[in-house]
Design a protein that fits this description.
It is a single chain. This protein is mostly helical. The chain has 9 helices and no strands. It has 2 domains: 1-30, no CATH class; 33-247, no CATH class. It is rod-shaped, with a radius of gyration of 33 Å. The chain starts with a helix and ends with a helix.
Length: 249
C-alpha cells in the first residue's frame, strides 16, 4: 500500500495531485479582465481612465481624418474654380458649394468686405486707401479657420503626453501591491510576486496603447493643417493682389 501511494504521488494520478493541478490552473489561468479587477480600486480607475482616453482619441482621429481630407479635397476644387472664374461675383455665388474649404471661407470674407466698401463709397475709384479693411477681414477669417482646423487636436496631444504617466502610475501601484503581498504572506515565491508584476506590466502596456496612436495622429494632423495654413496665406496674397489690381487704383 505504501508503495502504491508513493507511485500515485510520483505519477500525479492520485486525488491530491489532481487537486494541486486544479489549484495551479486557477492561479495561473487568470484572464486579462480578472487581472485588472484584482488590481484594486486605484488600478481599476487607472485602467478605466486609459480606456476612456483611448476611446475618445480614436473617435477624434476618425473624425479629424475625414474632416481634413474633405477640407483638402474641396480646397483643390475651389482653387480650380477660382482661377477659372471670370468675375469675383460669379465665384462668390459658387463658393457655397465649397463650405468645407478654408480657402472658400477666406474668399467669402474678403469679398463681403470688398462689396461693403464698394457700396459705401459708391464707385470703385473711392476705394483707394481701404485695402487694410480687406486685409483685416482675410486675417480674421484665416484665424477662425485655423482654430476650426486645430479643434480637438489638443486632446490628442494631452493623451499622448499623459497616458504613459498614468500607465507608469499603475505600474508603480502594482509593484507596491506585490511587495505588500510579499510582506504579508512572508514569502517571495512566484505565485505571490507574479500577479502584482502582471498588473504593473498591463498598466504600462495600456498607457502606451493609448498614447502611441494619439501622438502619431496628432503629428499627422498637424502636418496636414500646416499645409492648409500655407495655402490660406498664399491665397490671401493672391486675392489681395487681384483686388488691388482691379479695385484699388
Amino acid at each position: 500500500m505504501v508503495g502504491l501511494t508513493t507511485l500515485e504521488a510520483a505519477t500525479g494520478t492520485g486525488p491530491g495531485a489532481a487537486g494541486t493541478a486544479s489549484t495551479g490552473g486557477s492561479v495561473t489561468d487568470l484572464s486579462l479582465f480578472d487581472t485588472i479587477t484584482h488590481s484594486g480600486p486605484i488600478g481599476v480607475a487607472s485602467f478605466a481612465l486609459l480606456i476612456l482616453f483611448s476611446a475618445v482619441s480614436w473617435a477624434i482621429i476618425v473624425h479629424k481624418f475625414f474632416f481634413l481630407r474633405r477640407a483638402a479635397v474641396e480646397t483643390e476644387r475651389f482653387l480650380v474654380a477660382f482661377w477659372d472664374a471670370k468675375r469675383l461675383d460669379q465665384m462668390y455665388q459658387q463658393s457655397e458649394s465649397y463650405r468645407r474649404s478654408p480657402l472658400a471661407q477666406l474668399f467669402k470674407s474678403g469679398y463681403i468686405e470688398l462689396a461693403r466698401l464698394k457700396k459705401r463709397s459708391g464707385d470703385e475709384e473711392g476705394l483707394a486707401g481701404d485695402i487694410e479693411n480687406v486685409e483685416r477681414a482675410l486675417r480674421r477669417s484665416q484665424n477662425s479657420e485655423t482654430t476650426s482646423l486645430e479643434s480637438l487636436t489638443s486632446f490628442l496631444a494631452t493623451v499622448g503626453s499623459t497616458s504613459p504617466f498614468i500607465g507608469l502610475f499603475g505600474t508603480v501601484w502594482g509593484i507596491m501591491k506585490a511587495f505588500h503581498d510579499i510582506g504579508r504572506m512572508g514569502s517571495a515565491n512566484l505565485a505571490t510576486v507574479a500577479p502584482g508584476i502582471s498588473e504593473a506590466l498591463i498598466a504600462t502596456a495600456a498607457g502606451l496603447a493609448a498614447a502611441i496612436p494619439a501622438v502619431i495622429a496628432y503629428n499627422f494632423f498637424l502636418a496636414r493643417i500646416r499645409i492648409l495654413q500655407s495655402e490660406m496665406e498664399s491665397f490671401s496674397s493672391d486675392f489681395l493682389n487681384i483686388v488691388k489690381r482691379h479695385f484699388f487704383k
